[in-house]
Amino acid sequence: MAIEILYEKDVDPSVIQGKKVAIIGYGSQGHAHAQNLQDSGVDVRVGLREGSSSAEKAKEAGLKVVSMEQAAEEADVVMVLIPDEIQAKVYEEHIKDHLHAGDTLAFAHGFNIHYGYIKAPEGVNVIMVAPKGPGHIVRRQFVEGSGVPDLCCVQQDATGDAWDIALSYGWGLGGARAGLMKGTFAQETEEDLFGEQAVLCGGLVALVKTGFDTLVEAGYPAELAYFECYHEMKMIVDLMYEKGIHFMNYSISNTAEYGEYYAGPKVINEESKQAMQEILKRIQNGEFAKEFMDDCANGHKKLLEQREAMNDSLIETTGEKVRGMFSWLSK
Ligand code: NAD
Ligand code: MG
Ligand code: MG
């Protein structure tokens, strides 16, 4: 399934430049959206809770800071950039009553809309502009004259021009310099969750940790196991990232490449694929979202327990010791 990609020449900047935009939250994404849009000639205000420690930083960047209620009331476009698990509560208490017909409610991740934790009023557009990178990169690339690609989506088109608003917002972020991809809330939410669970965070950490544990349990020194299964990961990933798997294979020895073809499919096998399919199913049917939100409501009990176990594990304590050998890492 190929995706449609648009660039600066395809987008009308005047759409977003003609609107008042509220950025709710001033964290990783919030500071980048607020500053990039303001530099793109958009009328921006940042909505923060009373006593927010971010207010000073936003003012220093020359931004107008108001309450979340006032920001939502004044704005035509309200972009919600606070942690996903608190968005529904903050929306109910501070935003909902200040949305009027013709306004646009915007997100950088589809979780709350896709799983129904936030239900927008009928006359309001619901859009997503999700940069494919962390906030500080979104800001840095913009300042340097380039941009991070955005995924743009429309869930509810009440005014008939919700797509123009989403794409123009993406232009204001600098995303059109790199490419604006057109997608859906379902695709963005489900692919994002699947990627971080099965491959990027869940899969990667489990792979590294299981390899490390296998060597240590077989009697090898933990420090050497750390180098082989953890430390060298970044160098391999960098080669893949820069020039492809074939280039990584060209850089490693023939012995390593032969071992890759022999051992890879034994470790990540048909059973692993079935597990991934099961993970995808639980994301698609909302079971994962419910489990996560229930844990949030329970004070993050499961999350905190598992975080503590991970922090105490041998691979983490070994890593701390080994990384101490590299003075350049701590800089
Ligand atoms: P963050 O954790 O960096 O930002 C949190 C902001 O929310 C801060 O300004 C904080 O003060 C504010 N906040 C925290 N609790 C609050 C409360 N109870 N009431 C009001 N404000 C509160 O968040 P983030 O990582 O920028 O994520 C924001 C959105 O962007 C999420 O939907 C996330 O999925 C999405 N997103 C994040 C990234 C990323 O790289 N971080 C990338 C793409 C999309
Ligand atoms: Mg994510
Ligand atoms: Mg080696």
Notable traits:
single chain, 331 residues, alpha/beta, nine-stranded mixed β-sheet, 19 helices, 58% helix, globular, binds nicotinamide-adenine-dinucleotide, binds magnesium ion
Topology overview:
Layout: E1 4-6, H1 14-17, E2 20-24, H2 28-39, E3 43-48, H3 55-60, E4 64-67, H4 68-74, E5 77-80, H5 84-95, E6 104-107, H6 111-114, E7 125-131, H7 135-143, E8 150-156, H8 162-173, E9 180-183, H9 185-200, H10 202-217, H11 222-231, H12 233-243, H13 245-251, H14 254-267, H15 270-284, H16 287-297, H17 301-311, H18 314-323, H19 327-330
Parallel strand pairs: 2-3, 2-5, 3-4, 5-6, 6-7, 8-9
Antiparallel strand pairs: 1-9, 7-8
Helix pairs in contact: 2-7, 9-10, 9-15, 10-11, 11-18, 12-13
The structure holds nicotinamide-adenine-dinucleotide and magnesium ion (MG) (2 copies).
One magnesium ion binds next to helix 9.
Radius of gyration using CA atoms only: 23 Å
Note poorly predicted spans: none
Q: Within the largest sheet, what's the order of strands?
A: 1-9-8-7-6-5-2-3-4
Main sheet, how many strands, which sense, barrel?
9 strands, mixed
By secondary-structure content and strand pairing, the structural class works out as alpha/beta
Q: Strand-and-helix sequence, N→C?
A: EHEHEHEHEHEHEHEHEHHHHHHHHHHH
Strand content: 5-15%
Number of E-state strands: 9
